[in-house]
Structures are given as structure tokens and as C-alpha cells.
Design brief:
Length: 176
């Protein structure tokens, strides 16, 4: 029986908002991978990208996932690019059901517009075509990682959370 749930998906698909609600309902510890990376590094995500590039950020992401993948009963809110390194998913899968949140490029653009500065990959004026091409590139990575997939485009955060809970009934998940 698995004890963790990991949320994956592109930026702006609602991983953090949904994750916090789910953690509360399912009595799991909410763990945000990006936050742990900034804590460990002592600097923000944009600073890490600036000083060490995406490669440096991905190394830190691998280290954090390695540590938390061995812990139990967590709701793990992963950064959008966690799927790019297979080792992350292999480690998470040992004790997590992996839930992939999706949204349309229009919806993603609308949701990330106010928070672009905190996301180095979406900095400046982002075009829908850029989101679409990054989404297309990443789609196979998400597909091969996910146990279940939820399209969040027309759903409220609460609706996404309750749909995930319903779909999780197929999986044996430990709840205290
Ligand atoms: C990234 C997504 C971000 C963060 C970093 C890289 C990505 O997390 O990890 O900026 O590669 O998609 P969110 O998906 O929580 O925005």
C-alpha cells in the first residue's frame, strides 16, 4: 500500500492550490519540492536559475526528491519539470501514486500571467505558442510518469481535489 501522493503537471495546472486542500482532507503532510529546494540553496528559484542555470536547479531537484521519496504519508507538490529526470519518477513511484494535472495553453497562460516573475522558464512576455511547444515537448514525460490524469481546465480547485479523491479509490492509499 502506498502512502504518498505526488502531483505533477505543467506550471499553472493548480498543483499547489490543489495539493494544500488534498493534504488537509487526506491528512497528509503537504510538501512543496520547490520550497525545499530554495531552503536548501538559501536562494530563490530565479536566483538559482540565474547563478547555476537550469542544470544546477535540476541537480538540486534530484537531491530533494531523493530525500523526500523515502518519507511517508506526504502530499508531494512537484515542480513542473520534475518528470524530465527519470530518476525522480522512479524514486517517487516507490511509495507514491502519481497524479498528473493538465490544463489548456489558454488556461495556463491566464493562470501564470500574474506570477511569471517567480518562474524563470516563463519570464517576460510569454506567448501561447511557447507554452504549447514546451507542453508538447513534455507531454510524453508526463504520460509515462502518471498513474492518473485530471484535466483541470474547467474545474475549481475544490472540484479537482474531489475528483482526485474519487479516482484514488482505485488505488490502495494508506490514510491514518
Ligand atoms: C518549473 C516549474 C516550477 C519550478 C521551476 C521550473 C518547470 O514549478 O520548479 O521554475 O520546469 O516547469 P511550478 O510548476 O510549481 O511552477
Amino acid at each position: 500500500m502506498k502512502t504518498n501522493i505526488a502531483l505533477i503537471g505543467f506550471m499553472g495546472t493548480g498543483k499547489s492550490a490543489t495539493g494544500k486542500i488534498l493534504a488537509r482532507i487526506l491528512k497528509k503532510k503537504y510538501v512543496e519540492v520547490d520550497f525545499l529546494i530554495t531552503q536548501e540553496a538559501g536562494k530563490s528559484i530565479p536566483q538559482i536559475f540565474n547563478d547555476e542555470g537550469e542544470i544546477g536547479f535540476r541537480d538540486k531537484e534530484i537531491n530533494v526528491i531523493k530525500i523526500i521519496a523515502c518519507r511517508e504519508n506526504q502530499l508531494i507538490d512537484c515542480g513542473g519539470g520534475v518528470v524530465l529526470n527519470r530518476i525522480n519518477i522512479d524514486r517517487l513511484k516507490q511509495d507514491a501514486v502519481i497524479v498528473w494535472l493538465t490544463a489548456s495553453p489558454d488556461e495556463i497562460l491566464r493562470r501564470i500571467a500574474p506570477e511569471r516573475e517567480g518562474r524563470p522558464l516563463m519570464k517576460g512576455k510569454v506567448k501561447k505558442s511557447e507554452i504549447r511547444s514546451l507542453l508538447n515537448f513534455r507531454k510524453p514525460f508526463y504520460e509515462r510518469s502518471a498513474d492518473l490524469v485530471i484535466d483541470t481546465s474547467n474545474l475549481s480547485i475544490e472540484m479537482v481535489a474531489s475528483r482526485i479523491i474519487r479516482e484514488l479509490q482505485e488505488y490502495e492509499i494508506f490514510n491514518p
